[in-house]
Amino acid sequence: MFTTLHEGKLGVLGGMIPLDEKVSWVPKGSTGFQPSNCYLLTEGQDHLLVDTGLAVHGGQILDDLAERVGEGGTLSMFFTRSEMDCVSNLEPIAGRLDIERLFTGGVINPFDAFDDMSRAALRGRRHQVDKQRTGDGDSLARAAEIQVGAGRILEIEQPLLRLLPTFWGWDEATGTIFTSDTFTHGVTTSPDGPRVIDSTTGDDTTVEQVAGHLYAKYEWLPRANCEPLREWLYEKFTSLDPEIIAPSRGSVIKGRDVVKRHLNMMLDALNPVHSLAGPVPAQV
Fold first, then answer.
1. Using one digit for the tens of pLDDT, what is the confidence trace for 129-182?
2. Is 3-269 assigned to CATH 3.40.50.1000?
3. I want to staple 75 with a disulfide (CB 3.0 to 4.6 A). Which of 47, 64, 172, 257 is the partner?
């Protein structure tokens, strides 16, 4: 299912995950449905896919990509993490479309699971998004930003809040911040519910729900000093003033007023009521 977020510039692909005891990354007892997301950035004839979504949604994602890129068309990819909700559809997409460039971070090679021919063909198209070279002496091309198309840049940054190597992206052209496995708390009550929270949708999200989803992934946060995390999030969102929060799972959050509300709930989820940290920064 393709949903336009910014006409001609950005859309979200993927499907819904039924929340039951089989889903480990949500709070225990969660119900409803959670969107699983990947994002297509378009600039003229150029396309960049942020993550690839879950394999269970692979058929629909491939069809939507082929419809917009063209059957056998060319696109680049950026992985925010090397986890399965981000990389599952890499191989089927590579079999149907031409991957021009692949931007990844960390030390895991996403082509390791490919057969030798595919791995050899694609290895030279991989770029490392880390700003600095590792001490291993590898010769991968490195980038702190990705050129989506003429005059359009996706800026890459490693967030302070992470477990494995994780990267966020900032697309100034659409005012979108890609937050990977943070801000994943948006769920719906039905599989055909809205996958975008904006000013037109009913939004009854609570701080407790935000905290529950946050701690399901980052279970150590209640025992941590969260002051640096709160300061980093507050400063990042204040400087960028995003219009869209685009997580790899959970509802897309759209509209500056809605974004500020969810940021404030995230900051509150990291305050002493929910953790052992100190005072929360002033709200946006």
1. 765 544 444 444 455 889 999 999 999 988 888 877 889 999 999 999 999 999
2. no
3. 47
